[in-house]
Recover the amino acids of this structure.
């Protein structure tokens, strides 16, 4: 054999650069199901299932194309252990793969190649618009790494929503201020539901395996409706663009009890498994914009997530690893409350967000950022425990995208490396953007005492503790200006109540 091509569980792209120049007469593909990948964090059952099912379907697609394949099923060994055995057994001297989406795997493969004296060809992941080298170059002369400038660079470079004079269509780059509306007080009304993909035989086999092997892992398989093939991913894209995109922008930040998906695209799993290419997502959205009466603010808002945030966090991940994984700017040390794994809390916003997460392995961006993320920051939880939770519990979680979002966006644990302020909010924000507070036993406007909303109490406690730093930042000064309107006595009562909450965090 000339070359063994390793395809990992999140690299299911039939047009992958690793398969280019593939010679079936002498090359072979290897795919490995490893137990280690399912339990190095305590993964949601649906997360394990989506990876295994998508991998098995992809293996079928390779076989149909008559690509020689070794598929190692349900191995108890780590990927690199299986790979070592196979490389030795097959006497392979050349290993080719696309750069993995998790740093630990990249190191493990590089170490193995050194150990076995292999010729390793680790290729750039050209699924992304921006290579790691290009991002590094873009970042080199920047005093601050900010999404907005990177996003403009990407729009110009790829000529997305630009006019003939190379100016942004609509005269501005960003319509974010139009994309933050809550639902009406009567609720979201009719929402076109996302497409669902009932389990086929392959997926049902995976369910049996996951149920047998991972009975104590969190989450449920009962509501598993994720796309697991390229055809399904394309259908999901088509459905979103034709039936849901029009309302995506306006209600991007809105939350409503038992409305888990809102108008969101639910495309992250397909994108991250590489069943969909971001270029075809952008093309599909731009075509729809040209051919129908879609609002520019919605289209721009969606495109910003794909060629802006998604590419940006990936660039930052490779720029800042491995130290990003240890970042702890505030030196927070508290353990993650147990109810992050069960949803058993009296806080309605948390109960709903964690509850739907256990049910589907999904929560949308604002729930991840302003509910579970916000609370973890205000409650001073150790960033590495928070990150492990996000990596375990979301079906779309792969470290390159999960870690920067948790450490950088939600927790400010890297000290504002790419955000200008910590994203913190009190119950007043939750009340404005959702109906969670309506039937909560806590009151969002109460800062201390029996009825005090923990989000509100810990928000003010956080401001008191970080008052001088917040005063020095023009973007947070307004928050501490409001703090100065609270009497010293009340501030003391807030802090006393916060101590009590933090000491009993598993019981709130
Ligand atoms: C604390 C935290 C953890 C997160 N962890 C993950 C994760 O593990 N995996 C993941 O894919 N996304 C993660 N995100 C980003 C975002 O929340 C999800 O991409 C989004 O909720 C997925 O749902 P959707 O496909 O319906 O997205 P939509 O809201 O419809 O957005 C469209 C697409 O834009 C991309 N996107 C949007 N926001 C971001 C972002 N901040 N970073 C990267 N891509 C983005 C995604 O590919 C998404 O599918 C996280 C965000 C936060 C705040
Ligand atoms: S009152 Fe506080 S805890 Fe209850 S739902 Fe509102 S923000 Fe969440």
């Amino acid at each position: 054999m000339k070359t063994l091509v390793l395809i990992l569980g999140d690299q299911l792209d039939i047009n992958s650069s690793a398969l280019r120049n593939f010679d079936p007469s002498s090359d072979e593909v290897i795919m490995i199901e490893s137990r280690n990948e399912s339990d190095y964090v305590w993964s949601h059952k649906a997360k394990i299932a989506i990876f295994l099912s998508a991998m098995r379907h992809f293996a079928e697609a390779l076989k149909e194309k008559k690509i020689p394949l070794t598929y190692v099923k349900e191995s108890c060994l780590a990927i690199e252990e299986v790979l070592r055995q196979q490389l030795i057994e097959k006497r392979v001297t050349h290993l080719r793969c696309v750069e993995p989406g998790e740093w630990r795997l990249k190191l493990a493969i590089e170490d193995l190649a050194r150990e076995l004296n292999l010729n390793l060809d680790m290729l750039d992941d050209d699924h992304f618009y921006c290579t790691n080298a290009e991002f590094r170059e873009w970042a080199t002369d920047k005093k601050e790494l900010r999404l907005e400038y990177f996003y403009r660079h990407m729009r110009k470079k790829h000529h997305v929503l630009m006019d003939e004079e190379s100016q942004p269509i609509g005269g501005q780059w960003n319509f974010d201020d139009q994309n933050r509306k809550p639902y009406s007080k009567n609720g979201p009304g009719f929402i076109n539901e996302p497409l669902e993909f009932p389990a086929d035989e392959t997926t049902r086999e995976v369910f049996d395996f996951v149920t047998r092997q991972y009975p104590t892992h969190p989450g449920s398989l009962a509501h598993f409706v994720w796309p697991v093939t390229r055809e399904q991913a394309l259908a999901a894209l088509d459905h979103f663009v034709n039936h849901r995109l029009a309302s995506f922008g306006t209600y991007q930040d809105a939350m409503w009890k038992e409305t888990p998906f809102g108008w969101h695209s639910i495309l992250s799993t397909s994108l991250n498994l590489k069943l969909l290419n971001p270029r075809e997502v952008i093309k599909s959205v731009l075509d729809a914009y040209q051919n129908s009466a879609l609002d520019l603010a919605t289209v721009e808002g969606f495109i910003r997530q794909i060629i802006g945030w998604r590419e940006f966090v990936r660039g930052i991940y490779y720029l800042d690893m491995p130290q990003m994984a240890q970042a702890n700017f505030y030196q927070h040390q508290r353990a993650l409350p147990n109810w992050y794994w069960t949803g058993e809390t009296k806080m309605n916003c948390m109960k709903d967000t964690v509850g739907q997460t256990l049910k589907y392995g999904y929560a949308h961006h604002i729930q991840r950022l302003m509910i579970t993320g916000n609370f973890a920051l205000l409650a001073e939880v150790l960033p590495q425990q928070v990150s492990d939770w996000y990596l375990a519990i979301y079906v779309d979680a792969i470290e390159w995208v999960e870690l920067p979002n948790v450490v950088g966006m939600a927790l400010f644990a890297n000290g504002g490396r790419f955000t200008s302020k910590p994203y913190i909010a009190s119950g007043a924000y939750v009340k404005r953007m959702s109906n969670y507070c309506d039937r909560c036993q806590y009151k969002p406007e109460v800062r201390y005492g029996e009825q005090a909303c923990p989000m509100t109490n810990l928000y003010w406690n956080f401001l008191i503790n970080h008052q001088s730093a917040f005063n020095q930042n023009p973007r947070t000064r307004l928050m501490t200006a409001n703090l100065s309107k609270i009497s010293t006595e009340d501030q003391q009562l807030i802090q006393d109540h916060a101590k009590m909450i933090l000491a009993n965090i598993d019981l709130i």
In short: Residues 132-194+244-320 form a domain with the Serine Threonine Protein Phosphatase 5, Tetratricopeptide repeat fold (CATH 1.25.40.80). The CA atoms of residues 89 and 424 lie 54 Å apart.
